[in-house]
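Escalation from tier 1.

The customer reports that the assembly of four entities below gives different structure tokens on two consecutive runs. Tier 1 could not reproduce it. I'm attaching the input and our single run for tier 2 to review.
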Amino acid sequence: MSTEQNIQFCRDHHDHQSCMKTAIAKAEQVCESRNQRFTKLRKRIFELVWQQHKPIRAYDILDQLQQDGRAAPPTVYRALDFLLELGLIHRIESMNAFVGCNNPEKKHEGQFFICNDCGAFVELHSTPINSAISHSAEHSGFEIQQRTIEIMGLCPECKTKQDKQ
Amino acid sequence: MSTEQNIQFCRDHHDHQSCMKTAIAKAEQVCESRNQRFTKLRKRIFELVWQQHKPIRAYDILDQLQQDGRAAPPTVYRALDFLLELGLIHRIESMNAFVGCNNPEKKHEGQFFICNDCGAFVELHSTPINSAISHSAEHSGFEIQQRTIEIMGLCPECKTKQDKQ
DNA sequence: AATAACATGTTATAATATAACATATTGTAA
DNA sequence: TTACAATATGTTATATTATAACATGTTATT
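Tier 1 run:
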């Protein structure tokens, strides 16, 4: 038995519409259970984050919003802050970008594996990784409050493509 | 036997002058061995990064430089890029800040444990942490190119202080 | 001394993020 | 239902972080 999760890069391969639908349904539940409003605007921005299934930057979201009418940065950042707060999205620090989360039931942090080539990403919650870090911390009395773990590289597909060249 | 390194937060406790001297000596060696110039400006900026023994932001470096005369952002960023390239400093992505490295002999990445309260940090190169991540990646053919691991929390001292309150 | 390579100075501007205050919407209780 | 408070969004301005582009200076060779 392994505590390891399998990395599944899901680009193109899956029914993204239904994938998003599920995410939205979960998000609605999360908001309701915490007495927070999943307003039209927040939903729209949540959809834009999910849309591409890869990290998206705040100003790219803004550009898309502006296609519907005027909008300014605080509109985007406020919605992003709200979604981050509830764990419905995550911020990728090394890219100044945001990704949707599909395990938003409880607030959490993950480990992100992100393809430098195509942008596909996977969020893991690996016990071995977390344990190794916790162990290092406990070792000398460091109290962990927040973990940022962002692994960049090549996803299996892009690696294969590259190997062929 | 353990592959675990001990976290040593060294604020106040140590002879920072000699600590910096050593770092500078190593940096000079690294530059020489790679036929790169450790110019006066680069040395000055390297010292400023090391000075506080905690993460420092580019514009804080700029402010300090400007006390000696005029200086503009590219001056700082170019020096930082040079130092990053040689592995003499690291960038903390989640803080937009930089820290000095005292194992610059070969280019590498580390795991950073940073105190939210006092800013003290430690750079580890933990085999268990790296192995756990590598294992997750290999598991599905992801090729790692770069690791960002930044653990925020409370250092032993600040944790103790807080517990007392 | 001439040249090429490298490093720094300078100006302008791009990209990312927030402060502060005005207005609109929603939820609750009189 | 209105009145009020709480929450959310709009709007303008500005802070923070980072780079592009080109001019000038410095260093290492020949």
